[in-house]
């Protein structure tokens, strides 16, 4: 009897048996923003929720109440430069971290770019990285910028438990 391994999150590039041939055609061209393959790949991840308000996502994460739980949502002021937000629950707080798209080198980065500027080839690569290396979370209400937390991304928020399908 054949065994079936889970296909989700094995490779951040998303190249597995579930690959869509149409996406392959798109990725073979020069990478326009936001790389169409990344946009499509992001939408197929369990941690991507799309166009939900900051408040709705924060409330759902607070209900789940598990450190390291996260989602990626569309940025409310979605632009080429800031297409997504990584939303993380840690220490009874919800942190919203912008995901920036760097046009010049066709890569993604977290936050404002003022502190550290690690670059990633995809949003999936960001998520995979912070499952194994702690993400630094800065409280936006702390004007001194000294209150920082660190946590690993541990699990995607179970979307079907908190949101009705659109």
TrEMBL record:
<feature type="region of interest" description="Disordered">
    <location>
        <begin position="1"/>
        <end position="40"/>
    </location>
</feature>
<dbReference type="GO" id="GO:0005737">
    <property type="term" value="C:cytoplasm"/>
</dbReference>
<protein>
    <submittedName>
        <fullName>Cytokine dependent hematopoietic cell linker</fullName>
    </submittedName>
</protein>
<dbReference type="InterPro" id="IPR000980">
    <property type="entry name" value="SH2"/>
</dbReference>
<dbReference type="InterPro" id="IPR036860">
    <property type="entry name" value="SH2_dom_sf"/>
</dbReference>
<dbReference type="InterPro" id="IPR051751">
    <property type="entry name" value="Immunoreceptor_sig_adapters"/>
</dbReference>
<keyword id="KW-0727">SH2 domain</keyword>
<feature type="domain" description="SH2">
    <location>
        <begin position="47"/>
        <end position="157"/>
    </location>
</feature>
<dbReference type="Pfam" id="PF00017">
    <property type="entry name" value="SH2"/>
</dbReference>
């Amino acid at each position: 009897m054949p065994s079936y391994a889970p296909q989700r999150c094995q490779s951040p590039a998303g190249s597995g048996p579930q690959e869509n041939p149409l996406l392959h055609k798109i990725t073979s061209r020069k990478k326009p923003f936001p790389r169409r393959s990344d946009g499509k790949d992001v939408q197929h991840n369990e941690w991507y929720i799309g166009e939900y308000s900051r408040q709705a996502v924060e409330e759902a994460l607070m209900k789940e109440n598990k450190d390291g739980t996260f989602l990626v949502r569309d940025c409310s002021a979605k632009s080429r430069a800031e297409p997504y937000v990584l939303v993380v629950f840690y220490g009874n707080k919800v942190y919203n971290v912008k995901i920036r798209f760097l046009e010049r080198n066709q890569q993604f980065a977290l936050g404002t770019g003022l502190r550290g500027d690690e670059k990633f080839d995809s949003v999936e690569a960001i998520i995979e990285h912070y499952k194994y290396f702690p993400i630094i979370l800065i409280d936006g209400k702390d004007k001194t910028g000294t209150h920082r937390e660190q946590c690993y991304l541990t699990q995607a928020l179970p979307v079907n438990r908190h949101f009705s399908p659109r």
